[in-house]
Specification:
single chain, 102 residues, Membrane-bound Lytic Murein Transglycosylase D, Chain A, two-stranded antiparallel sheet, 4 strands
Length: 102
């Protein structure tokens, strides 16, 4: 369902039986909830000092070689909203870059 480098890879799927418009039922498949890891669970690969104009995708590409892995940086920094990590008030602070888990 999801690629191996997706944050959702490996999550269990479930089925819910719900009513349909014809008075019968239908099965809806879904991926179970993903919980964000606790702060400090990741091993740090690098510390990145945020500069004006840094973007999360380019920072992630620089350290992890893949801009779509931004979610790993979000998890390591306990960010639910990726743009919050590089917003202007954060310039000059350190962003933790995790060692990717396989």
């Amino acid at each position: 369902m999801f690629g191996t480098n997706s944050r959702y890879a490996g999550l269990d799927t479930a089925v819910a039986t719900v009513p349909d418009a014809d008075g019968g039922t239908r099965d809806v498949r879904y991926v179970r909830r993903r919980f964000v890891p606790q702060a400090g669970d990741a091993t740090t690969l690098a510390d990145h000092l945020l500069a004006q104009g840094d973007r999360l995708d380019t920072v992630t590409a620089r350290y992890l070689g893949d801009p779509t892995q931004f979610w790993r940086v979000c998890d390591a920094n306990t960010a639910m909203n990726p743009p919050d990590l590089t917003a202007p008030p954060r310039v000059g602070t350190t962003l933790l870059i995790p060692v990717p888990r396989v």
